[in-house]
């Protein structure tokens, strides 16, 4: 209880940071993942190859490495810090943006595979019908295939979002002040490993359980009934 | 039904976790003290594996460093041969738990004595006085101490560590803090120029300066004062007295100074005076 009163404000700040990380990465990952999925089902050989290679490389790289690469590879070696280096908060902003970039690139691969699975559930007759109406590949995807595909994979997308929320804890390795970083501080100060661990586990459940519930509700509500 | 099972899940997790801690503390109180374990010739010592000069796992699987030498000397005084020691890695966040659960008999791992920890475990020693200091590139001349960090200098420290918190609390207006999960990552960032300085205990910095002689240096006077102790079970007072005796012997017979010179001498870091053991 003392831990809760002493660190209450910091807990709120840290979990807000976690939510910001997850929300921004989720939006970016959804956009990028959908583009990747469109590339993977496209009739153009080059697009398919590029997207397949990207997904297989990034999806099979440990997330910690992706995040560390963003900080050491991009920021330190290549100088891509995503901020004005003269800004007085350049390090904090840079770490945060690089973390969002890393999570987006990583999670997009999973979104891509989920959306592609959704596309595969749509009978070929649908795209053939679209083509016979005179719609091109992009139009058919945009108006006929993807709307149905998304409705089929809301459940899996929810799982990906939950995984993303928990994955944001990796951002502490490059110093983003989210929940896991605060947890390390509190454990260092109080030496109460198990109690502190439980508090943060509960904090994450407060984020992930409603997310899961919302997505299973949506997946039922929006399912394509045939 | 769905909602009910959703609420039940975290409750179940709590019960399981509670049961686990209950078991752990019960098992801990039954275990024998350090002295009895030493007599049986089976000592498990907790150390860190990745601090050059302090304690480090070598490529051939052996361990070396100042902490390792202290741990070996103490074990020797307890009558345990070097070959009988079982080394166990003690990550920072788990140290108190490892001791309370009896997974290690004592820990020598740059372990700072403080009151929150004293509530959980006992500390023999101190065997070394340390302070927070700064490590910079050898060609740097404008950083001489924490006051000279003004003007948005970039400082690196390990995630969640006391030195990092200290910087955030006391110097946050003057410096930008980059946190990485290991000191080694900070050293990389310092070498590449991404940060201007690293801050943590001077002795840890001295270890990095020693393996990067000519490239990195420790500057300024330490601006905090802490002591490293040997952590063991809180109620093991005989074990604590024995280890305190061993530390005093080590300081008296010159092995302490020899171990310091051997492991941290190359850094150019001045050897501190040996601390007086605190028997509480």
Description:
The complex is a heterodimer of chains A (226) and B (280). With 226 residues, chain A is mainly α. Chain A has a single domain (2-222), classed as Orthogonal Bundle (MetI-like fold), CATH 1.10.3720.10. Helix content of chain A is 81%, strand content 0%. Chain A has nine helices and no strands. Chain B has 280 residues and is an alpha/beta fold. Chain B has two domains: 32-130 and 226-267, D-Maltodextrin-Binding Protein, domain 2; 132-219, D-Maltodextrin-Binding Protein, domain 2. Chain B has ten helices and 13 strands. Chain B has helices at 2-30, 34-39, 66-77, 95-100, 115-118, 162-171, 183-192, 202-211, 237-252, 255-264; strands at residues 43-47, 50-51, 55-57, 63-64, 85-89, 106-107, 121-130, 132-137, 153-158, 175-180, 197-201, 216-219, 226-233. In chain B, the strands form four sheets. A five-stranded mixed beta sheet of chain B has the order 10-9-11-8-12, sandwiched between helices. A three-stranded parallel beta sheet of chain B has the order 5-1-6. In chain B, a hairpin with a 5-residue loop joins strand 3 (55-57) and strand 4. The A-B interface holds A 68, 71-72, 75-77, 88-92, 95, 172-175, 181-185, 187-191, 193-194, 198, 201-202, 205, 209, 213 and B 6, 9-10, 13-14, 17, 21, 92-94, 96-97, 116-117, 119-120, 152, 154, 159-162, 164-165, 176-181, 185, 188-189, 192, 194.
Q: Concise description?
A:
The complex is a heterodimer of chains A (226) and B (280). Chain A has 226 residues and is mostly helical.
Q: How many strands of chain A?
A: 0
The number of distinct helices of chain A, counting runs of at least 4 residues, comes to 9
Instruction: Please summarize the sheet with the most strands of chain B.
Output: 5 strands, mixed
CATH class of chain A: Mainly Alpha
CATH superfamily of the largest domain in chain B: Periplasmic binding protein-like II
């Amino acid at each position: 209880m003392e831990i809760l009163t002493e660190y209450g404000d910091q807990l709120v700040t840290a979990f807000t940071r976690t939510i910001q990380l997850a929300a921004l990465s989720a939006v970016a990952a959804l956009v990028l993942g959908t583009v990747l999925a469109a590339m993977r089902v496209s009739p153009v050989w080059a697009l398919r190859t590029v997207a397949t290679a990207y997904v297989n490389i990034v999806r099979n790289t440990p997330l910690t490495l992706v995040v560390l690469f963003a900080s050491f590879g991009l920021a330190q070696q290549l100088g891509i810090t995503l901020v004005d280096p003269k800004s007085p908060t350049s390090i904090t902003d840079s770490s945060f943006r690089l973390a969002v970039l890393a999570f987006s690139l990583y999670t997009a691969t999973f979104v891509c595979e989920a959306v592609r699975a959704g596309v595969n559930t749509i009978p070929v007759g649908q795209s053939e019908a679209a083509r016979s109406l005179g719609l091109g590949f992009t139009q058919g995807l945009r108006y006929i295939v993807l709307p149905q595909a998304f409705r089929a994979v809301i459940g899996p997308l929810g799982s990906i979002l939950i995984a993303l929320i928990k994955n944001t804890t990796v951002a502490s390795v490059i110093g983003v002040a989210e929940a896991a970083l605060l947890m390390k501080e509190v454990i260092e100060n109080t030496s109460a490993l198990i109690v502190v661990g439980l508090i943060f586990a509960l904090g994450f459940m407060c984020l992930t359980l409603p997310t899961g519930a919302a997505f299973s509700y949506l997946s039922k509500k929006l399912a394509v009934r045939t | 039904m769905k909602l009910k099972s959703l609420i039940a899940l975290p409750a179940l997790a709590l019960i399981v976790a509670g049961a686990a801690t209950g078991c752990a503390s019960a098992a801990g109180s039954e275990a024998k003290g350090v002295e009895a374990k030493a007599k049986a010739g089976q000592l498990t010592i907790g150390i860190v594996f990745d601090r050059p000069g302090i304690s480090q796992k070598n490529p051939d699987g052996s361990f070396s460093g100042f902490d390792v030498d202290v741990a070996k000397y103490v074990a020797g005084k307890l009558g345990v041969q070097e070959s009988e020691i079982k080394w166990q890695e003690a990550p920072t966040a788990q140290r108190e738990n490892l001791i309370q659960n009896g997974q290690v008999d004592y820990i020598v791992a740059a372990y700072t004595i403080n009151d929150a920890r004293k509530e959980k475990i006992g500390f023999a020693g101190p065997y070394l006085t340390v302070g927070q200091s700064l490590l910079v590139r050898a060609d740097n001349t404008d950083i001489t101490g924490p006051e000279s960090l003004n003007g948005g200098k970039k400082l690196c420290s390990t995630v969640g560590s006391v030195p990092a918190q200290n910087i955030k609390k006391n110097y946050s207006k003057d410096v930008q803090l980059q946190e990485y999960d290991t000191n080694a990552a900070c050293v990389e960032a310092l070498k590449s120029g991404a940060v201007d300085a690293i801050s943590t205990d001077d002795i840890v910095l001295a270890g990095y300066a020693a393996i990067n002689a000519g490239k990195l240096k420790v500057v300024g006077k330490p601006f905090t004062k802490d002591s490293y102790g040997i952590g063991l079970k809180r109620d093991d007072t005989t074990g604590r007295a024995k280890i305190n005796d061993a530390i005093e012997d080590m300081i008296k017979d010159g092995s302490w100074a020899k171990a310091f010179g051997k492991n941290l001498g190359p850094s150019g870091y001045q050897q501190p005076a040996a601390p007086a053991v605190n028997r509480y």
